[in-house]
Amino acid sequence: MSATATSTPPPAAPKAAGGKGGRTRLSLPWILLLVAGGLIALSAVRAITGAQDLTSAGQISAALSLAVPIGLAGLGGLWAERAGVVNIGLEGMMILGTFFGAWAGWQTDPWLGVLAGVVGGMFGGLLHAVATVTFGVDHIISGIAINILALGVTTYFAKLWFNSGEAAAKGGSPKQSPPAEDITSITVPGLSDWLADVEKHHWFLVSDVAGILGGLVTNLSLVTILAVLLVIGTYFVLWRTAFGLRLRSCGENPVAAESLGVNVYKYKYIAVIVSGGLAGLGGAFLSLVTSHIYNEGQTGGRGYIGLAAMIFGNWRPGGLAMGAGLFGFADALQLRSGGESVHALLLLLVAVLVGIALWKAYRKRWITAAVSAVMAAVMLVWYLGTDTVPVEFVSATPYVVTLLVLSLSAQRLRMPKADGMRYRKGEGK
User: Cα separation of 211 and 407, whole Å?
Assistant: First the structure.
């Protein structure tokens, strides 16, 4: 994501990422090796510190639940920015999703509430598309305006709809809605219980894998499964279809795309409206799956964290899902275990920083290696000199993780070349 400019990119076609002048992408064996290394490190930290909740099924289940709305917001940002529109209004679109999802959910059926949340988010996306695509408003200004507008509209309607009549009788108030019914969750019979038994033994690595898998097959909401399918579907639509190629060309070079017959405005509109719908679905998840009610301030900045997950994932669905999982894990850790588990996480951070320092030294980037080594030493001293971490730091853990991840991944990022740039119809003719 970048500051909006008033100029358009040059008509020359951009080089393909990962090609001869691009950055090499990690192959599947390397990804599997990194995942295995992460599991071993996490298991070692659990065994050394005794923080058993680090890899428990409950921790993973909570992390997944917290990662879904972040991931859906990030997925919405990916759709918009791949078409060249910066969507910082994701937070407002999520707010619309929480409100309209809960409003429809308690009166009718929770699945109709999910649909209403998606429609509410799509309406926010449509406003953003009209402002940025048709009228050329600065993308950042439009997004901030939508965030403010969504908060004001939902606050007004909450006082109007939830504070009287049947809604008030069923628990509604100016700041919350009446509760909606539960959306079906599934547990894999037999497998869930067996994994729980293996986890109880606290065997090195084996019990950790069992805990992680157990969290993924126990009390799994159908909306969570839908979110996973949307991540996979986004990859196939945007990278494996002609439609996706045209949409991404609008984010790379709209002038060249229009000269080849692509209706740039149409694809930008589609992308931003889909973006709003995905953010609205994330909001509906918060109000219908996580808590079953709408609460004022319920999104808690998850739209912005979703953007951070998208940037961490280098504007690709797989990396975005990893980023959302990381932020969800950090959020669940501070909510479930507090200072003890976050304190244990300091040791894991030491190992990560040492690994980065060694890698940068191998690449002869001495300044980065030295900074990483110093940070690792500071974290180690902090860990050895304390038994827990302050409550204030515990509550800030997800946001600290956001800043660390973005700072460590900044050098490998490659956003769409026309992202945030104003485009006027007819420039490619």
Answer: 30
Q: How far apart are CA 55 and CA 35, in angstroms?
A: 14
Q: Give this prediction's pTM.
A: 0.88
Residue type, 237: V
pLDDT at 241 over 90: yes
Q: Residue 346 in contact with residue 382, Cβ under 8 Å?
A: yes
Region of 85 please: left (phi>0), alpha (psi -120 to 50) or beta: beta
Instruction: Fill in the amino acid letter for 429.
Output: K
128 Cβ contact partners less than 8 Å away, ≥ 6 residues apart:
80, 85, 87, 89, 93, 142, 143, 146, 272, 276
* Higher pLDDT pick, 278 / 419: 278
Structure confidence by residue, pLDDT tens digits, 366-401 = 988 898 899 899 989 988 988 887 777 777 777 777
Q: For the chain, what is the radius of gyration of the CA atoms?
A: 23
pLDDT value at 351 more than 70: yes
Q: How far apart are CA 165 and CA 347, in angstroms?
A: 54
HEC assignment per residue over the chain: CCCCCCCCCCCCCCCCCCCCCCCCCCCHHHHHHHHHHHHHHHHHHHHHHCCHHHHCHHHHHHHHHHHHHHHHHHHHHHHHHHCCCCCCCHHHHHHHHHHHHHHHHHHCCHHHHHHHHHHHHHHHHHHHHHHHHHCCCCHHHHHHHHHHHHHHHHHHHHHHHCCCHHHHHCCCECCECCCCCCCCEECCCCHHHHHHHHHHCCCCCHHHHHHHHHHHCCCEEHHHHHHHHHHHHHHHHHHHCHHHHHHHHHHHCHHHHHHCCCCHHHHHHHHHHHHHHHHHHHHHHHHHHHCCCCECCCCCCHHHHHHHHHHHCCCCHHHHHHHHHHHHHHHHHHHHCCHHHHHHHHHHHHHHHHHHHHHHHHCCCHHHHHHHHHHHHHHHHHHHHCCCCCHHHHHCHHHHHHHHHHHHHHHHCCCCCCCCCCCCCCCCC
Per the CB < 8 A criterion, the answer to whether 69 and 221 are in contact is no
Strands 220-221 and 185-186: antiparallel
Helical pair 90-107 and 57-82, crossing angle rounded to 10 deg: 120
Q: Which of 69, 54, 165 is nearest to 117 (CA)?
A: 69
Packing angle between helix 57-82 and helix 264-285, nearest 10 degrees?
160
134-148, 223-237, 375-389: the lowest-pLDDT one: 375-389
Candidates 166, 148, 168, 165; CA nearest to 156 is 148
